[in-house]
Every structure is written in C-alpha cells, then in structure tokens.
Design a protein that fits this description.
heterodimer; A: 313 residues; alpha/beta; Nucleotidyltransferase, domain 5; GMP Synthetase, Chain A, domain 3; 2 domains; nine-stranded mixed β-sheet; 32% strand; B: 339 residues; mainly alpha
Chain lengths: 313, 339
C-alpha cells in the first residue's frame, strides 16, 4: 500500500511539475534565430543581426561592449536572440577579431560560421546576406579562395605571429586579406588567394584554365593532396610543398599555372605581409624541432625558402 | 546487495573515468598523452594486490563484519570527499556547458535528489544503468569524432606543452580516484576471474588517448587558453550545420555525473551501514555530507593532487597488499562458500 501511495504521489508530482510549460522556458517563437550578423566598431560596437525569417527585418544594437550591443539588438527584436546557427559574420575593424572568441565560447556561435572582413566598404542597407554567404561558399568550393571559418581564424589569431587569413570584401570585389596584430590589413592578389588553396591543402578547384598546346583548355582535377616537409640548408629552413594531383589534361601547362599561383602566395604572405598563414611554424616544429626550438620567432620563417613542386599521379 | 558482473563493473569504472576526462583541466600535449599511458600502467600495477586478494577468495564484507571499523571509516571519508569534489566539478562543468540551472546549490540539490533515487534502487540497478549510459557514451564519441574529423591537423602534435611527462603522469594519476572503488566493488562480484574487471584500464586508456589526440590535433593553438579542453572540443565539434550536438554532450555529462555520485553514495552508505548498523537514511546523510564537503572544498579552492595520489595508493595498493600478506592468518575473512 505504501509503495502504491508513493508511486501515485510521484506520478502526480511529475505530471504537475515536469510538463516543461514553465514560462521561463523559451519557445521557438520566443527566439530570433540569427542567420548572419555585421559588426562595426567605431567608438561603440554596432551589431546588426539578420534573422532567418525573411518577413522579419534586421535589427541593430549599439553598445560599449559586445554583450551590450547584443542585448540592445535583442531588445530591438523584442525576443531572445540565438546565434548558435550563425552562418556569416561581417566586421569592419581588424581589432574586432579579438572579441570573436567571446562569441564562440559565450554565445556558442557555430565554429563553422564564415567570417568576412569589410575593407574600406560597408554593407548596403538592403544587403542580401543569404546571397553573400552562398557566394562566399561557392568561391571556396570553386577553389578561388582558401576555406576558412571562425574556428580556423581564431586558431590562427592565437598562433605565434597572430596573423589570420580572412575573406574580405573590397571595392573591387571578394578577395582574401591577412589581419595581423599591429599591422595594416594586407589584401592578397587573386593569384595568391588561389595559390593559398593549394598551400593550405583544404580546398582546391575542380578545374583550371590553362594555355596548352591547343590554346586555352581545361585541366580537370580529380583529387589533390598537399605534403609539407622542411629541412635546414646552411642554417636556412627550406620548406617543400609537394602538391600531388590526379587529373586529366595538359599536365605541364597545369603545373606552370599551379606553381605560379603557389609562388605568388608564398611571396605575398611570407615576404610581403610577413604572416604565416600556410603553417610554416607547425612544419618546422615537426620536421626540424631542434632548429625550431633554438631560433627566435621573427628570424625563423621570414628567411625560409619555399619550394613548390607539382607532381601528377 | 546483490552481485554484479565483471562487465558491469568495467562499465561502471570506465564511466567514472569518462566523467573525470570531461572535467579535467590541465596543459595538454603529447607529453600528457605519454603521461596518461604511464599513469594507466601504474594503475594496472596498483591493482595487482586487489586481484591476488580476490583470487584467494577474500571478502571485504566478511572482514568488516568482524567489527573492524577503521577501514570502513576511511573508505566512507574518502568516498564522501570525492563525492564532494565531483559536485565541485559539476558546478564548474555546468558553466561550460550552459546547464539550465543558475545557482550551484539548486544544481547540487537536484542532482542529489536524482542520486538518492538511483542509490535507493541498489547497486544492481545502478550497474545495469551504467551499461545503458556506456552505449550513450559510445554514440557521443562517434558524434564527437565525426564533428572533429575534418578539423584534425596532425602537425599540431609537434607542438610542446608546458608540463613534462612526469608532471602529466602525476596529474593523470590524481584523477584515477575510482581505483579504491575497484577494491570495494570487487567484493560485489562473483569473484570468478577477478582480473576481468581490470579490462576498464585498457578501455579507459583508449578513451583518454582518443580524446587527448582530438584535443591536441583539433584545438591546436586554442588549446593553451582552454580551461576545460573537452568542453572546448565539443563546442567546435558540430557534425551537422543544421543541428547542434550540444544537447547530446549535456545529456552525457549529466548522466555521468549522476552515475559517479550515485556510485560514491552507494559505497559510502554501504560502509556507513557496516559501522552504524542501525543508522537509517544513510544515502541521504551521505549526500548531505557530500554537498557539505563540496561547499567546503569549493570555498577553499582545493586541488590537492598529491594528497589524492597518496589516498589512491594507500586505499588501492597498500591496504589490499596488507590484506594479502595477512590473509593466510585470517581464514574468517574469506567468503564462506570458499572456506
């Protein structure tokens, strides 16, 4: 009898209290699910949030801190904002990258969220953020720009030289930009951006246009992989990037195009921008640990000789 | 209490180790991976006297029933303190995983209520539940691996961490606080092939090394700043763009913490019953003492790893070894069916 009464009490209690209908529990309609955001940093931080729902307009919150701006934007929406599915985050000041880690950890932004740096330009009032995101993804898929996301960019910002490679919108169009502490943003050429796709080994084009024996033609790429290695020659680190490609078409013409793209990428990032966005530090730490541990950060990699070789299977 | 099987014992201990893995906070690198491997070898060595003892047919219950109160009291104290430390770990982890409880005390009381219920069902029900949670752990690991797979960069393995192999070994050994529970839990198995229970060590080693490998290769330069590497790993390991996996990690974390605190509660209440035979509501008393010790440990910010190692070695090695050496003189400590 006692057990029966206890069971009945438990059942009634759970029916009454465990329904999940507490007012403080947010329902789907009580939240604004944000698809993209734009961050402008002048004297205050201005945060514009673009929700997934097409019928709902974007709202802007201004505040001294990121949390302030977010709270004010949330007030403008009249509901709690959820950034967990954020697809694109645009920002116009290089030093705002320092605030991004708080968004990842505190606001639980998706680590695969794309970042876009607005270089000397603003987003238009009626900017189609979905189109912008899709365009950025297509550019990556086509191997025009290297694949990046919030997580990779934060990792690069935490590396020794604090330089990160970020897609950027310039007056000329979409490109890649290097943001490093204390330096001006460095915009890479189209050729260097394409070369970085090969040197970072994350994404590559499915075809490239080459000038072969029969004039302009396509070289189809079926698969490609990158192998980085390093050795020390006369106290200078020599890094070899071996790109092994499986494809069809004029191999010699393709080799010339890819090598010229890689050389442009190496020259612009290492020699001109003085930023390691290829992974030289990691490569040196792995293949030449003794040399790496003995050298000063600044003297190791900028003197490095990089050789790009393209091989075909 | 009823008997539990060796496989249930293995999953119980493995889940307890998995909880420590979720909550651990230390500088990670390849040195820590090596230190972890060494730590697990040391743990296996520490378990040898326990295995020898139970192969001889030793029964801890038979020993304690002869009015030997010192060992039960030490174990009660140990389990209550570690229960309290588990609560502290839950509070810290709750902040990282955004548990929907704002006040730590509310969290502690809610977990305490659940643990009281699970503890009241007995060790057998608890052991059966651990098999189910083990399944959830495997699914979670599969999700974690799927989400992290594309972000693995083996070049990161070349980076050095701040701690040496010896420091890492000691740090990991201090987290093996369920080792004394092996000595106690073996008492509830059928006693046949006790070495089977040690299967949790290779499984635990694989689990630890897998997660450490993922932490190093996925988190890379973010790792030195990560207070809780596992939680950071979960936040960046989202296999689907349309559905976040946070809820799965949250469920696992809560289940592991409940299982661990329940285990410590069941064992403490069991020993408390040996010392105070007429004492009622032993599980509730134990849970209150654990919450009290959690408040105490939290307020003094206790993190004494050396003291933990000493306690682990004492209770899982020195005590069983002493029993081993003295067993032939005390036939009454053996189980009656073996005598």
């Amino acid at each position: 009898m006692k057990k029966l009464v206890s069971a009945a009490i438990c059942l009634i209690m759970s029916i009454l209290f465990l329904t999940g209908c507490r007012r403080s529990v947010p329902e789907v309609r009580d939240r604004a699910y944000i698809q993209s955001a734009a961050l402008y940093g002048k004297s205050n931080i201005s945060l514009t949030l673009y929700p997934f729902e097409e019928e709902q307009k974007q709202e802007t919150g201004i505040g001294a801190t990121m949390a302030d701006a977010l709270e004010n934007a949330s007030t403008s929406f009249g509901k709690e904002v959820f950034l967990g599915h954020l697809e694109l985050l645009c920002f116009d000041k290089a030093d705002l990258t320092d605030k991004l880690s708080s968004l990842l950890y505190e606001q639980r932004i998706s680590p695969s969220c794309k970042l876009l740096f607005l270089y000397d330009t603003d987003l238009p009032e009626d900017c189609d953020m979905t189109l912008l995101t899709d365009r950025l993804i297509m550019e990556e898929e086509n191997g025009h720009i290297p694949e990046t996301d919030l997580f990779h960019i934060l990792s690069e910002k935490k590396s020794k030289d604090e330089a990160a490679l970020i897609p950027a919108v310039t007056k000329e169009g979409l490109s890649m930009c290097i943001l490093s502490s204390g330096n001006k943003p460095y915009i890479l050429s189209v050729k260097a951006a394409q070369g970085l796709c090969w040197l970072r080994g994350k994404n590559y084009p499915e075809r490239i246009a080459v000038n072969g024996e029969k004039g302009s033609e396509d070289y189809e790429i079926h698969s490609a992989k990158l192998k980085l290695s390093a050795e020390i020659n006369e106290n200078i680190p020599c890094i070899t990037a071996r790109i092994i490609i499986k494809g069809s078409g004029d191999e010699q013409a393709a080799k010339a195009v890819i090598e010229s793209q890689c050389n442009a990428a190496a020259r612009e990032t290492i020699k001109l921008a003085k930023a390691d966005v290829i992974g030289l530090f990691k490569c040196l730490a792995r293949y030449c640990p003794e040399y790496y541990s003995k050298q000063e950060t600044e003297t190791v990699k900028w003197d490095a000789a990089i050789q790009c070789t393209v091989e075909f299977e | 209490m009823n008997k539990i099987s060796c496989s249930q014992l293995t999953t119980t201990l493995l889940l307890s180790s998995a909880f420590m893995l979720m909550c651990f906070s230390a500088p990670i690198g390849t040195e820590y991976m090596a230190g972890t491997a060494i730590s697990f070898v040391i743990q296996a060595i520490l378990c040898i006297p326990i295995i020898i003892l139970y192969r001889k047919g030793f029964s801890l219950s038979a020993y304690c029933s002869e009015k030997h109160f010192l060992i039960p009291c030490i174990f009660v104290l140990y389990f209550i303190l570690h229960g309290g430390m588990s609560f502290v770990l839950v509070f810290n982890g709750a902040e990282q995983l955004s548990l929907p409880f704002s006040a730590p005390l509310v969290t502690a009381v809610l977990i305490g209520i659940v643990c009281f219920y699970t503890a009241s069902l007995g060790l057998c029900a608890f052991a059966r539940a651990s098999s189910i949670v083990f399944g959830i752990l495997v699914i979670t690991l599969a999700v974690l691996l799927t989400g992290a797979w594309q972000r693995i960069d083996t070049m990161e393995l070349a980076q050095k961490s701040e701690s040496s192999i010896i420091q890492s070994t000691l740090q990991n050994l201090s987290l093996a606080d369920t080792l004394p529970a092996v000595f106690v839990l073996m008492n509830f198995t059928d006693g046949k092939k006790p070495q089977k229970a040690l299967f949790f060590l290779p499984l635990g080693l694989i689990l630890w090394e897998l997660v450490l490998f993922l932490c190093i290769t996925v988190l890379g330069s973010l790792l030195p700043d990560a207070q809780y590497p596992f939680f950071l790993l979960t936040s960046v390991s989202q296999p689907l763009s349309s559905q976040r996996a946070d809820s799965l990690y949250l469920i696992l974390f809560v289940l592991l913490c409940i299982l661990r605190i329940t285990l410590l509660t069941v064992l403490s209440a069991h020993f408390l019953g040996m010392v105070f035979k007429k004492l009622r509501f032993r599980s509730i008393i134990t849970l209150f003492l654990m919450i009290g010790s959690a408040v105490l440990l939290g307020s003094v910010n206790y993190s004494g790893s050396i003291l933990c190692i000493i306690a682990i070695v004492l209770l899982s090695f020195v005590v069983p070894l002493t029993f081993c050496l003295r067993l032939k003189n005390h036939v009454s400590w053996k189980e009656k069916n073996n005598v």
